[in-house]
Every structure is written in structure tokens, then in C-alpha cells.
Amino acid sequence: MRAVDIVMKKRDGGELSREEIEFLVSGYVSGNIPEYQVSSWLMAVFFKGMTARETGFLTDVMLHSGKTIDLSGIQGPFVDKHSTGGVGDKLSLILAPIVASCGVRVPMMSGRSLGHTGGTLDKLESIPGYTARLTEARFREGILADGFAMTGQTEEIVPADRLLYSLRDVTATVESVPLITASILSKKCAEGAEALVFDVKSGPGAFMKTPEDAERLARSLVDTGRAMGKRIIALITDMTEPLGLTVGNFFEVEETLDCLEGTGPADVMEVTLALSERMLVAAGKAKDAESARSRCLAVLESKEARTRFLANAARQGGDVDRMLALRGNYRAPFHAAVTAPSSSFVTAINAYGIGMASVLLGAGRSKTSDPVFPDVGIIFAKKSGDRVEAGGEVCTLYARDEAALAGAMDLARKAVSFGSEKPDPIKHILKEISAL
Asked: Quick check: helix, strand or coil at residue 391?
């Protein structure tokens, strides 16, 4: 078997066998097949696509390219949720303790920010002392004690995905649906989840810009996951504007606490509860979304979910007392506000523009080696549909230096639109696709 023949076959639209995919991927991981040939294959996949069978083969090969997490001996069910990436998307931080409080184990392998989208691990590690670099033993400990744990991908777990993802990033093949599907599912299966709920974002702040593209990805995830024996639900949700009132790492931890205390923004709670309900249904802990919602609301009302969040933060090294003391005043020193030019309605807030502004502030990364800062970001006083008076504040940006603030302010101003008429409310849950 030769790599060049496999590249040619995919270039010409052929369907690859499991053996051919395994030869190429395993050869790349071992260093026997050069990066330039794998880059050519990625571009061929981008243009020619993959069949459902091929996508399943690729997912399985990537899954078995390294270690998987062993959760044997722990009573399930095990269910995880994955978002395809958005701006202000702190939902994993909120729903994991909610769902765990309802008797579901949530093993969560999350990622870091890249480009305009935020990263769950960066948000959690803005808590002083918190670490997402867990050994398998500590990951199991968190699952047993708190019902959930948050960790990052290691060099031993699904190494094929780590290598291929980096190559996709520099070969302009990130948006390929089969490659996204294999990347996501290989990691989620490696962490031990038996059922999965996907939050597939659609809109300017998402990788999938149109509902049609988002549905293609959602169906690919559902179909491939079902073929691998998993119970799968995908929700297509809106990412036209940022979720909630905060964008930035510690800022979003603060909003997580608000949500767990019953004072969180309505849009965040709507999507969080919709996903939490599906996780309970997929786990077999509720017969339908309505009964699942009652259980989720009960653990929020009792503050059990908040207690679990704090317990897990402490278990993963976080200084909870320090976190609570910083709440509301952990802000970078340079700040400025986007204001309304006249009395009007906020008619739109472009999620992509706000996401890129947050990157300039230092809340996200342009490349994987960039540092991120916990005390920078954007806090909204108004969202689309809100009335604002002339000179009134829409959002405030926080930065560590004047240069970063100036560049981000330019992007943020362009991201906010005003008008004389109140816009229609945003529909946050667009569609559900499931395989139960």
C-alpha cells in the first residue's frame, strides 16, 4: 500500500477502505508518512467528502490511535455534551453540575480557545489554582465524587486527532464535515461517554455559518455516532450574537455562578436547560424533555448544582474562596465602553466581531501558542432588542494595555448595530436531530 495511491483515490472521488484509512493515519502518527502527503489527502477529503462508512472508519481509527480513558467499575450512565464552538458559550460549566446532580455521570474532555471561539478549559483555569491537566486516576476521582470532571486532551489520548487538527488548521480544511465529525467523536468516545448531546452552532459566530451547513454536520454526527453504538441527540442552536452578557474567561465563570444561583441571563439558561434535558433523556434518566426540565430546575432551586460546581472546582485545585472574593472586581485596568450614538434600539450584535475583539483583548488565541488572560473581556449592559439612550453604554471592554483596547474597540463598535425599530427576538433552538 502506498500513501500516494490513497491520495489519488480520494482525489478522484473514490471510497477508501478501513485498511487504507488506517494505513494513512497510523503512518502519519508514527512518522512514516510525511505531512505533505497527509495535507494532500485532507484537501482531497475537503473537496470530495467522505461517505458515512468512511467517516465511521476514520473515527474508529483515530479513536484507537492511542489510549482511551477507563471508567470501568464506575456505575453510569455516562453522557457528555459537545459544542461546535461559539462566543460567550459557557454552557458546559453550567450544565455539567446540573446533569450530574440529576444522577448522570458527565466525563468531559474539553478544548481551549482558538480563533474567535472561547475554550472551556481556559475559562475554568481562570479560577486561581484550577487545573484541567488530570491524570486518569484524578479524572475517575472527580467522576466518582462529583459526578463530573473536566480534562483536556493529552498526547496519549487520540494522538491522531491532535496531529490532524493542527494540520487542518494550517491547510484550510477545518470546515470539512467528515473531518469535524471524526475529530469530535473520536475524542468523545475515548473519554468513555455512552451517549452524547451535541450543540451545533449556526450563524456568524459559528464555524457553520448557515442552518443548512449546521444541519449537515449535525446529521453526520448523529449518523456516525449511531453507527458506533452511541445514543445521540443534536440541537442546532443560534450563534448570531454572543450568548449571555459576558465574553472572557473569568467573566464567564462569574456568569456561570449567576446561572447556578438562579440569576443568569435568559438566553444562556434557555439553551443550557434544553441541552441538559436531552442529556437526561439520552441517559435514560427521564422519559421526555418536560420531566427532565423539572429535575434540572429542582437541582438549581436547591443549589445542589452550585454546590457540585464549587466542590469540583476545589477538587481540581481551584481556590474557591479566592474565586468568590474576586467575583465582580477581577478586571483588567484599561477599559472603555461602546455607546449608542442616539436614542435607539440595539438591533444586532455580531458574534464573530465580538469574538475577534475578545481575541485582541487577550481572552482568546490567534494561534495555539498565544497566552490568554483571565481578567480581560467584554461585559454587556444591553443586548439586541434593548432600548438605549444617546450616549448609553452597550458594552464595556477590559484590556491589559491601551493598544489592545484600541484595536478591540474598533471591532466591537462595528459589531453593534442600532435602529429605530425593535428587532424580532432571536430564536435560540433551531432544530433537533436524534438517534435514540
From this structure: coil
